[in-house]
Write a structure and sequence with these properties.
42% of the residues lie in helices and 16% in strands. The protein is α/β, with parallel strands linked by helices. Strand 5 (118-122), helix 7 and strand 6 form a beta-alpha-beta unit. The radius of gyration is 17 Å and the shape is globular. The two termini are 22 Å apart. The relative contact order is 0.16.
C-alpha cells in the first residue's frame, strides 16, 4: 500500500470513531528495511519512523538526519539498560519502558543530559511469559514509581497476543491510561490499526503495509 493510502485509512478511521482530524500519529516502522525503501518514504515527506534496535538505528539515522530535517524517531523495540544513553540521544520517543531498573537508568541519564525523550510504558496486556512489559495489575504502581523519578510519561504501549481479539487489549490499555491521567496510547499495527484508532490510539506503528515484507538479511 502507498503511504497516502495508509494515511487515508487512518483519516477514515478517525472520522468513523469521532476522533479529531490528525489525532493519530503514524509511525512508519522502518526496522530491517533497506535504506532505499526508507529514503523513498522520506522523499514523500514523512518524518516519523520507528526502529526496534538502537544499533541498527545508529547505523541508519545519523546519515539521514544530515539530509532530512525534522525527523521524529521512536524506539519501539526492547531497550537494554547499557544502550539507554545512546537511545536517549537518538530518539524523540521510547515506547518500551518496561522495568524499574530501566526507569532508574533513564532518570539518572535525564538529569545528566538535561533532557529526556517522551516515554511510553510497555504493558504486557496478555501476560505472555515470552513478552516484555509490565503486567496490567502492576502498571498503576509502576506509573507512580516513574512519576516519582520525574520521568516524562507520555502514555502506554501494548502488543496484543496474536491469537486473541486485539480490541479487548486496546480497551484494557485505554482504561489503565485513563485512570492514571495518561493521554498517549501506542497501539495498533499493520493488521489492526483501524481497530486501535476506534479504541483511542494516538500512535499507530505500521511497517509492512507501507514498506512491504521485512528485508531480513539484506544490506542497506
Amino acid at each position: 500500500m502507498s503511504l497516502e493510502e495508509i494515511k487515508s485509512r487512518i483519516q477514515t478511521a478517525e472520522n468513523s470513531a469521532g476522533r479529531t482530524p490528525d489525532a493519530v500519529q503514524l509511525i512508519a516502522v522502518s526496522k530491517v528495511q533497506p535504506n532505499a525503501r526508507v529514503e523513498a518514504v522520506l522523499n514523500e515527506g514523512h518524518r516519523c519512523f520507528g526502529e526496534n534496535r538502537v544499533q541498527e538505528a545508529l547505523g541508519k539515522w545519523p546519515d539521514f538526519a544530515q539530509r532530512f530535517s525534522g525527523l521524529d524517531l521512536h524506539l519501539i523495540g526492547p531497550l537494554q539498560t547499557n544502550k539507554a544513553r545512546q537511545a536517549m540521544e537518538l530518539f524523540q520517543s521510547i515506547h518500551t519502558l518496561d522495568r524499574p531498573k530501566l526507569a532508574k537508568a533513564l532518570a539518572r541519564l535525564a538529569q545528566e543530559l538535561g533532557q529526556c525523550p517522551d516515554l511510553f510504558i510497555q504493558v504486557n496486556t496478555g501476560a505472555e511469559p515470552q513478552k516484555a512489559g509490565i503486567l496490567p495489575a502492576d502498571t498503576d504502581d509502576f506509573i507512580s514509581e516513574c512519576r516519582a523519578l520525574d520521568l516524562p510519561l507520555k502514555g502506554l504501549m501494548c502488543i496484543p497476543p496474536v491469537a486473541e481479539d486485539a480490541a479487548e487489549h486496546f480497551t484494557l490499555l485505554a482504561e489503565i491510561a485513563a485512570r492514571n491521567g495518561l493521554g498517549g496510547l501506542s497501539m495498533g499495527m499493520s493488521g489492526d490499526f483501524e481497530t486501535a484508532i476506534a479504541h483511542g490510539a494516538t500512535h499507530v506503528r505500521v511497517g509492512s503495509a507501507i514498506f512491504g515484507a521485512r528485508a531480513y538479511g539484506q544490506e542497506g
